[in-house]
């Protein structure tokens, strides 16, 4: 919390103190003696019953709460019977406990609060919950008070995620267009195109299983994986088309024969590609935490593309 606590400020006048033969320490002693925080007793003090689980100390509120009450503090009694009160030698007002640090927003006094996330927390979910709770508090605040968020890092996160999602869809469209351009067959293009969203959905499931969220890093890994995961589907489709053309077999039998021929190669391709990214999952420190999600995403996509 960057705002300061309220406190009673006492501004002593040296000239008036001298006229009454007083020192600042005399004023301090008078305030301490007449504004004492006392204990009002205890709840559950000894002797206690066996069912009692705690003992609580009760403190009474200070006797003096307002500037007028502090002004009435007696600092000195004169020989003629008159008294010197705090208002005679000082100016009393409610102010800040500490003026060494202040919080301002657009030139206006403010009370700042910084919210730090716990390790592993989701930034977007945390921001949503915090803003929801603050909105509840705002309804109970006096009129004239407003809530502002001068620095919200989640806005940058949202923009980054939206940009990566847009790139993801653009990559899918480009991959489909390139496949059709070179295969020159709509049916042969359709099968790998369908494999892309199916594999991505399966990858989301794997991420949920590992407890990973959909963030900029995992989405970027999916963008890179799109061009790799269609390779298996293209190889299968081309081999099935070749068997159907050369041997005249129906689609079902051609597919079974094709998978018998190239299943080993497909598994080997997935293992080789996964082996490239697998070491990243074992990095230590903060680097490992970051790249582990990247590695798991790509490897999951590769393995699911074989299935």
TrEMBL record:
Its main location: membrane. The chain crosses the membrane at residues 164-183, 190-211, 217-237, 262-283. InterPro entries: AcrB_DN_DC_subdom, Acrflvin-R. Keywords: Cell inner membrane, Cell membrane, Membrane, Transmembrane, Transmembrane helix, Transport. It is found in: Cell inner membrane. GO terms for molecular function: xenobiotic transmembrane transporter activity. It comes from the Bacteria. GO terms for cellular component: plasma membrane. It is a multi-pass membrane protein. This is Hydrophobe/amphiphile efflux-1 family RND transporter. It comes from Klebsiella variicola.
